[in-house]
């Protein structure tokens, strides 16, 4: 399990009174915005690259209280006269889950920021790459966007791949046979052992092999020459 990755985002809210609009229940009408941002390494405000979608859940008195933003900038612009607590739902890249964070809409200042720390544990490859694009990640996450040998890969999987696969799948090497030693060893066997060996050879015989049993129980097999 990799070390958690943390990122700090912020909800940036702006608001101002709309000139010339009548009061609503004794309060001035205001235009306000709320946007999901983060600061990059140079201190510039940017859209978090690891967020795929944002849902702003507003006060139920709004005609459409759930505002879904599926592409950057993750920002809404509304009008109203009252303060309230909204809920902002962040959906992460690569199906990396979602998180709901409450946010207080107030009119005390024309612009204010509310930072939030997000924690990611064992993110999927695409989400991890997006996190890498937004800052550093703990040691153990490689540049390909996986933790260790790969997302979900067992230990040693990378080495087996480099070696050409599992040892069980390797083909046996062909080794030269000393025919004289083989013939000498066969002559020392009794008849039952010879018959057993002949049976084993017959069981493993292929189309390009010739097997002959002589009258004394000895046998000879050889590869047929390929004349093509």
From TrEMBL:
Q: Which PROSITE patterns match?
A: YEATS
**Segments forming domain YEATS:** 1-134
Chief location of this protein?
Answer: nucleus
Pfam families named in the record: YEATS
Q: According to its UniProt record, where is this protein located? A: Nucleus
User: InterPro entries this protein is in?
Assistant: Sas5/TAF14, YEAST_sf, YEATS, YEATS_dom
Give the top-rank taxon of the lineage listed in the UniProt record for this protein. Eukaryota
Tell me a Gene Ontology molecular-function term this record carries: translation initiation factor activity
Q: Which UniProt keywords apply?
A: Initiation factor, Nucleus, Protein biosynthesis
> GO biological process: what's one of them?
regulation of DNA-templated transcription
Entry's Gene Ontology cellular component terms: chromatin; nucleus
Q: Where is this region: Disordered?
A: 147-178
What is this protein's record name? Transcription initiation factor-like protein subunit
